[in-house]
Amino acid sequence: MTGHPLLRVRDLTVGFTTAAGHTDVVKHLAFDLPRGGALGIVGESGSGKSMTSIAIMGLLPKGAKRTGSIELDGRELTTLREREMQAIRGDRIAMVFQDPLSSLNPYYTVGTQIAEAYRSHRTGVTRREARNVAIEAMERVHIRDAARRVDHYPHQFSGGMRQRVMIAMTLSMEPDLIIADEPTTALDVTVQAQILDLLAEIRRDTGAGLILITHDLAVVSEVADQIVVMREGDLVEQGTAERVFCDPQADYTRMLLDAVPRIDDEIGLLRTTSEEDR
Amino acid sequence: MIRFLANRLLGMAVVLFLVCLFTYVIFFVLSPDPAVQICGKNCTPEAIDQIRANLGLDQPFWQQFWTFLSGLFVGRTYGTGANAVECVAPCLGYSFQSSQPVTGMILQRLPVSATVAIGAAVLWLLAGVSAGLVSAVREGKFTDRFITGLTLTGMSVPNYVLALSLQFLLVVTLGWLPFPQAVPFSEDPLQWFMNFLMPWIVLSIGAAAVYTRLTRANVIETLQENYVRTARAKGLSPGLVWRRHALRPALTPIVTIFGMDFAGLLGGALITETVFGLNGVGKLAADSITKNDQPVIMGVTLLAAFLVVVGNMVVDLLYTAIDPRVRVGSAA
């Protein structure tokens, strides 16, 4: 254990320069994630929450400019060369994406894709070892009959199972940090709960830190202990989950919370975050 | 898998039957009476009737079509008695002008067409796919624009213009290539190669241009795919991301059109073969059209249709090997 938080983000700004001019989609973002902590980043579409995760991974598209500091375990990531960053991706920081079907390559078996990270980060791994790692990872995400299903292709899995495969993919390397970008958005409500339970379970078992990015406050409330609220690239509010939910400081957070229908509410129009949207 | 294969074969048979039917109808309606051609100058109506009866031309359409169809499988005999001509299966018809079975005429010229097609295919695949890859990697840069400009030119220049200008430039003006002469490979491989070089280039340029664009578009599109992002997020090296996650999905559609294009070309390159005086199936078709030798035109048409249908089938089978999503018989 070191004195550093697992992830320390300071003054993170991501901008694009196009023919139309320069726009910052993430502005001076700062937060800490303690070892084993779970942080929820909440915001509407366009709030810059996904860009934040991609910026941490160092996977920003061409033309994007990233400034500020991102420290993983005290090690500055923004100054690393691409090759050094590759060693961190998948190994120390792993990512789960929104749409599990399009995020899996249709041409390879799930086993191949789960084991791929393991094989590229560890040297001298035999095919059999990698396969066993894949089966083990699939068992950990509760995919039944993993020894057989490891040779199946993504299209042979249901949506929820595919997302389990995506999560299994992150597990093979035992990362310190898992970033889940809208991991439940593309799934049925019943399946969403299962995936969230799974993420919580993995966090408990492996002690990995978790960043959960979502527009869904219900999702965040279940998993995160720290919350960052973002709007149009700005950090609006941050604090413990309890504090943000029970005693929101920013008007915007309050509006977000009010926009969620509650079972004990009077029947009426749902509130939106901006009046013009009506 | 066997059911899939059986289904495909059945479909293929239906398509080929329909092609035969349509082709036969067209030529049955359009064809000048072969009996008149055979009868020659000193002809009487009685003699013509006699010939028609001999050849079965007096029979109803369906009867004749049936004879033609069965000839494809078991062969048939034209005429009776001492003048009878045997046409062995697969009998595509009989050319009364050259007094030869059509099948033999085509088979004799098929090797030349195959040589032209194979060489051109290799050339356009290599050139098209590699130029497309370079273009995709350098997207938006000068190299990309340059290649895109070239493909536009390549696609818009007609074959015959290209063939004639190339011949004029390389043979007449610069003298880099010898004047084409038909030489068998075993006799003088170099001359043989030089002989085919120009047809190969001419035939491949248009296709190479199309393949360049297709490859470029496919690769650029695939690189945007979410699974490519996943691969990068796993920490794979850029080379591995490219080879494994971008190239395979991007090049799969190329297999489809390649199968079709190649099969179509095997059936003869009419213009190119004619311009370069290559004695292939395309030249045979061109000559037959000039001479109005209907059975030969029909035979070449059927061959081309057959090749395209078979090519399509081969592509479908290849696809089951390449793309797991169309693989059949694997339970979910």
TrEMBL record, chain A:
<dbReference type="InterPro" id="IPR017871">
    <property type="entry name" value="ABC_transporter-like_CS"/>
</dbReference>
<dbReference type="Pfam" id="PF00005">
    <property type="entry name" value="ABC_tran"/>
</dbReference>
<dbReference type="InterPro" id="IPR003439">
    <property type="entry name" value="ABC_transporter-like_ATP-bd"/>
</dbReference>
<dbReference type="InterPro" id="IPR050388">
    <property type="entry name" value="ABC_Ni/Peptide_Import"/>
</dbReference>
<comment type="similarity">
    <text>Belongs to the ABC transporter superfamily.</text>
</comment>
<dbReference type="GO" id="GO:0005524">
    <property type="term" value="F:ATP binding"/>
</dbReference>
<dbReference type="InterPro" id="IPR027417">
    <property type="entry name" value="P-loop_NTPase"/>
</dbReference>
<dbReference type="InterPro" id="IPR013563">
    <property type="entry name" value="Oligopep_ABC_C"/>
</dbReference>
<keyword id="KW-1003">Cell membrane</keyword>
<keyword id="KW-0472">Membrane</keyword>
<dbReference type="GO" id="GO:0005886">
    <property type="term" value="C:plasma membrane"/>
</dbReference>
<dbReference type="InterPro" id="IPR003593">
    <property type="entry name" value="AAA+_ATPase"/>
</dbReference>
<dbReference type="GO" id="GO:0016887">
    <property type="term" value="F:ATP hydrolysis activity"/>
</dbReference>
<dbReference type="Pfam" id="PF08352">
    <property type="entry name" value="oligo_HPY"/>
</dbReference>
<dbReference type="GO" id="GO:0015833">
    <property type="term" value="P:peptide transport"/>
</dbReference>
<keyword id="KW-0813">Transport</keyword>
<protein>
    <submittedName>
        <fullName>Peptide/nickel transport system ATP-binding protein</fullName>
    </submittedName>
</protein>
<keyword id="KW-0067">ATP-binding</keyword>
<feature type="domain" description="ABC transporter">
    <location>
        <begin position="7"/>
        <end position="257"/>
    </location>
</feature>
<keyword id="KW-0547">Nucleotide-binding</keyword>
From TrEMBL, chain B:
<keyword id="KW-0472">Membrane</keyword>
<feature type="transmembrane region" description="Helical">
    <location>
        <begin position="157"/>
        <end position="179"/>
    </location>
</feature>
<dbReference type="GO" id="GO:0005886">
    <property type="term" value="C:plasma membrane"/>
</dbReference>
<keyword id="KW-1003">Cell membrane</keyword>
<feature type="transmembrane region" description="Helical">
    <location>
        <begin position="9"/>
        <end position="30"/>
    </location>
</feature>
<comment type="similarity">
    <text>Belongs to the binding-protein-dependent transport system permease family.</text>
</comment>
<feature type="domain" description="ABC transmembrane type-1">
    <location>
        <begin position="110"/>
        <end position="319"/>
    </location>
</feature>
<feature type="transmembrane region" description="Helical">
    <location>
        <begin position="296"/>
        <end position="319"/>
    </location>
</feature>
<keyword id="KW-0813">Transport</keyword>
<feature type="transmembrane region" description="Helical">
    <location>
        <begin position="114"/>
        <end position="137"/>
    </location>
</feature>
<keyword id="KW-1133">Transmembrane helix</keyword>
<protein>
    <submittedName>
        <fullName>Peptide/nickel transport system permease protein</fullName>
    </submittedName>
</protein>
<keyword id="KW-0812">Transmembrane</keyword>
<dbReference type="Pfam" id="PF00528">
    <property type="entry name" value="BPD_transp_1"/>
</dbReference>
<feature type="transmembrane region" description="Helical">
    <location>
        <begin position="191"/>
        <end position="211"/>
    </location>
</feature>
<dbReference type="InterPro" id="IPR045621">
    <property type="entry name" value="BPD_transp_1_N"/>
</dbReference>
<dbReference type="InterPro" id="IPR000515">
    <property type="entry name" value="MetI-like"/>
</dbReference>
<dbReference type="GO" id="GO:0071916">
    <property type="term" value="F:dipeptide transmembrane transporter activity"/>
</dbReference>
<feature type="transmembrane region" description="Helical">
    <location>
        <begin position="250"/>
        <end position="276"/>
    </location>
</feature>
<dbReference type="InterPro" id="IPR035906">
    <property type="entry name" value="MetI-like_sf"/>
</dbReference>
<dbReference type="Pfam" id="PF19300">
    <property type="entry name" value="BPD_transp_1_N"/>
</dbReference>
